[in-house]
Amino acid sequence: MSEMATTSLSEQSLREILVDLATEARRRRFDVAPNPCVGAAVIAGGQVLARGFHEYWGGPHAEVEALRAARASGVGPENWEALVVTLEPCSTTGKTPPCTEAILRSGIRRVIVGALDPDPRHRGAGLRLLQEAGIEVEFVPRASELERTAPHFLRWVDIDRQRRPRPWTIAKWAQTRSGQLSPPPQVGGGRWISGPDSLREVQMLRGRVDAIVSGVTTVLHDDPRFTVRPPGDPSKPPLRVILDSYLRTPTDCKLFAPPGPGEGAGEVHILCQAGANAARHRALEAAGAKVTGLHSSEEDHVALRDVQEWLWHKGVRRVLLEAGPQLLTRHLESGFVDQVRVYTGDVMGGEGPTMAPWFTRMRLAERLDREVAADAVLESFVLPSE
User: Is 358 helix (H, G, I), strand (E, B) or coil?
Assistant: First the structure.
């Protein structure tokens, strides 16, 4: 592949376009993780005709969005000079079809990339496929370095993680200003801390994961449904996975209620210690759950490593952990949290233990602080302990 671009744009101009695309793509980092932040642009007449970005995990990739925007511009494909993309186009099917297929269908004859796929299993495969189809492929080195634009993706494809793969886990919780996960009894019915705008955000997040994981204590205390409602996408609801060592989940809890109109409800899976109460096992399966026995940990809980392996083998790649402080702490202590989203409501006081000490112990990266109405929201990646 050539390292000098031959479009009507200079290499310096292409480098500037790639840097700009990578910077803009990085703003979506928490929405796309563990996927990389990627931007793409269609060039026509020496100018950027259309841009596209990977907006959220499971959604269309940047190349597809850029080509779609180019078609909508009114400038015909015969005038498209090149597709510029910050990362080598994918050539395998995941949540979406391969981007190489979309590029080949578009009729574009030149592709310029700013970084190669860091995953050794796929590195160079997409570019070779395009070259074999007669497309000119060019590389602008060091234009969109992943160490700067998507370091979380480098951790995701790291060889050590590939040896013992596990899903990308997002720990989400709402807390009061003093860090309690349960509000005072007179606030939100003793249950709700964050406001309606934040709750709508969570529905969108639920629609963009493969599984929601929680514990039996949360089921007993809150009786949640863990369904997906608009503005989330209820068409592909995630698995609802409850860690329940001794099968204490009530058979009449709301997890087993049929979904309401416009609501998506994934399969209910209960992970218990192997050999747990056989009668309870049968009763929960009769209620609609799928019950699986796993090894126990030294603390007499279901072993989290077994849970991670079970999720991976079920095809789960992105998990939303919605749990109480005990299960959150176990995941954090085990190093099984990759990303956090914390909603701090405009509520003082509360009940139960606080997660506040963890903010002094977690190694946070690329932290983003924002506001949703009256709630403060923290998003960050969690680095492994040193």
Answer: helix
Res. 12 pLDDT band, cuts 50 70 90:
confident
Half-sphere exposure of 70 (CA within 13 A, CB side): 33
| pLDDT of 9 strictly over 80 | no
Burial 107-126 (b: 16+ CB within 10 A, else e): ebebbbbbbbbbbeeeeebb
Packing angle of the helix pair 62-72, 99-106 (nearest 10 deg) = 30
Kindly give, in sequence order, each residue whose CB lies less than 8 Å from that of residue 146, ignoring residues fewer than 6 positions away: 36, 87, 115, 118, 153, 154
> How many whole angstroms from its chain centre is CA 176?
25
Bond prior to 34 in cis (omega within 30° of 0): yes
Catalytic residues: 63
Tell the CATH topology of 164-383: Dihydrofolate Reductase, subunit A (3.40.430)
Query: Please, what is the Cα angle at 101 between 98 and 106, to 5 degrees?
Result: 135
Break the chain into its structural domains and give their ranges: 11-150, 164-383
Helix axes 125-132, 99-106, angle to 10 degrees: 20
* N-terminal to C-terminal alpha carbon distance within the chain: 39
Bridge pairing between strands 47-53 and 39-44: antiparallel
* Dihedral angle, C-alpha 179, 334, 202, 353, nearest 10 °: -20
- CATH architecture type of domain 11-150: 3-Layer(aba) Sandwich (3.40)
Place of tokens 């790291």: 158
Please name the residue ranges forming H helices in the chain.
Answer: 11-26, 29-32, 62-72, 99-106, 125-132, 146-149, 151-156, 159-163, 196-206, 216-222, 278-287, 304-313, 325-334, 358-361
**Full-model pTM:** 0.93
Query: What pLDDT digit, counting tens, does each position of 158-213 carry?
Result: 999 999 999 999 999 999 988 888 887 766 566 678 899 999 999 999 999 999 99
Instruction: Judge residue 385's burial from the number of C-beta atoms within 10 Å of its C-beta, 0-12 exposed, 13-18 middle, 19 or more buried.
Output: exposed
Cβ contact 247:356 at 8 Å:
no
